[in-house]
Protein: Nuclear transport factor 2 family protein
Amino acid sequence: MSSDVTSLIDRYCAVWNEPDADSRKELLEAVWAERATYTDPRADTVGADELLVHIASIRMSRPGAKIVRTTSVDLHHGVARFGWRVVEADGTPLPEGLDIAELSPDGKRIARIIGFFGPMVAI
Structure:
């Protein structure tokens, strides 16, 4: 199941990188559960349409940037976590982030993403 979840997460990341709005919607609908939520420090969305608006806004503010998964996908009890970073169009890497993904009961779609920006700070 771990490779299936890794594939699911990679397909989710591909949504953020897709320049065409219609293709982006199609990609998201394949991985996003109905009424799934996405929350990060700048957004709190419900459903695919709200997330697509947010993604379009981010893409407009960072033309040509890509989301790159930077860690393996860690999974237990239907919850996955993975590291990622934005790489600007000129190749400049931005600080990494961390997403927590709650999967649908069948494990085939994402029911919730909670995203954090930047590295964790040691105490």
